[in-house]
Amino acid sequence: MNISVFGLGYVGVVCSACFSRDGHKVIGVDVESTKVDLVNNGKSTIIEEGLEEQITKSVNNGLLYATKDYKQAVLDSDISFVCVGTPSLSNGAINLAYIYEVAKQIAEVIKEKKSFHTIVIRSTVKVGTLKTCKEIIEDISGKKHNEDFGVVSNPEFLREGTAMYDFVNPPYTIIGTYSDKSRVVMTDLYSSIEAPVYQIRPEEAEMIKYANNNFHAMKIAFANEIGNICKENEVDGHVVMDIVAKDTKLNLSSYYLKPGFAFGGSCLPKDVRGLTQIAKSHDLKTPLLSSLMKSNFYQIDRGLKLIYNTGKRKIGFLGFAFKSGTDDLRESPIVTVIETLIGKGYDLSVYDSNVHLSSLLGKNKEYINNHIPHIYKLLKEDVNNVIEASDVLVIGNGAKEFGKLLPKIPSEKIIIDLVRVDKEKTSKDNYIGICW
């Protein structure tokens, strides 16, 4: 393929080298003469193992050259990768000026172009950037998306120091586009890379890089805070975190990485509070760990606001143990929601088969009698009684019976799902998901 790459900084020059290594003809585009001259002389614009050797080889083979002439670059290519910088503004927001400037330049050129052109945003950008670029290109060029051109979000996952390796060994390839033609082009382009390909909405693709990098930052901050606490207690933090990282069932897995409602139960809230208190006893600051309970309370507030916004007063709860498959009500966030609504005079009814059974057997009876007798009075034995009595139904845990029940709930009832019992559903019509 013929590829133009806008921006010969870190991402752009690595992509240029790697695409040309695969036999594609690559034209690097940059406004800085220094970078253009470096590439054309077989030199790299950054320090990265193996990069300069590949640039030299590609230039000598006639598969890579650089230019400041963006017009000719677009005319001589079928795909344009946008790899320009998106630096932070003074308020922390990202500066998208360079992205939009390149979109305008490409639009000017494809106005005169007869063949289909694919524009790929490789830079890290906020949600909605691709949509704005599409509108800019349509407005300036007079061309139509998916007929004359296509735009794609294709975030990169390159680590400094191992970028050449990471390019051909990514965790996955993300193709976010509404253009069928560009989707085919991108799938073909990455066909030689052995990694899962996820074809998703552009908005989801734009969010993935931010989610990944913030997750990495969170892990580093977490390990540092644990390490600080360990040191003050004469414990080797590396030993602790090395063992933590060996748990691939829970710690390094997808198990807890699912958006939904607040955490609860007898362990997590107690141990979060306990560890932060240990840190305080040593005069240590733990900004990340100390934020966990605040974040949890915010998610409870968010669930309450979804209920308030319906304007309805008759609310039914399907599941109120802190998670499915248990009758444990200790620090259940749903219990907090129910108690708040009781205090505000809402008309409530509650169903949870596990809690009902345990209360009859006495397993959970003491807790119910001593802590939440007012909620137990609302507990119904038949789920249909809750559905009939309520205008809004809140799904509080992921019990399988609720997933089967969901399609049978009358359309005039509003459903607020805090756990996503149906993985295919997103907020639409009478169904509201807390994070989807």
UniProtKB/TrEMBL annotation:
UniProt KW NAD keyword: yes
Keyword Plastid recorded: no
Transmembrane segments annotated in the record for this chain: none
BP term (GO), one: polysaccharide biosynthetic process
A single GO molecular function term of this UniProt record: UDP-glucose 6-dehydrogenase activity
Reactions listed under catalytic activity: UDP-alpha-D-glucose + 2 NAD(+) + H2O = UDP-alpha-D-glucuronate + 2 NADH + 3 H(+)
List of catalytic residues: 267
Assigned EC number: 1.1.1.22
Pathway this chain belongs to: Nucleotide-sugar biosynthesis; UDP-alpha-D-glucuronate biosynthesis; UDP-alpha-D-glucuronate from UDP-alpha-D-glucose: step 1/1
Binding-site residues for NAD(+), renumbered to this chain: 30, 35, 86, 124, 160, 270, 330
Domain UDP-glucose/GDP-mannose dehydrogenase C-terminal span(s) in chain numbering: 316-423
Signal peptide location: none
Binding, substrate: 157-160, 209, 256-260, 264, 323
Keywords, alphabetical: NAD, Oxidoreductase
Annotated PANTHER family: GDP-MANNOSE 6-DEHYDROGENASE, UDP-GLUCOSE 6-DEHYDROGENASE TUAD
Family label: Belongs to the UDP-glucose/GDP-mannose dehydrogenase family.
NCBIfam families: NDP-sugDHase (TIGR03026)
Name listed for the protein in its UniProt record: UDP-glucose 6-dehydrogenase
Organism field: Mangrovimonas spongiae
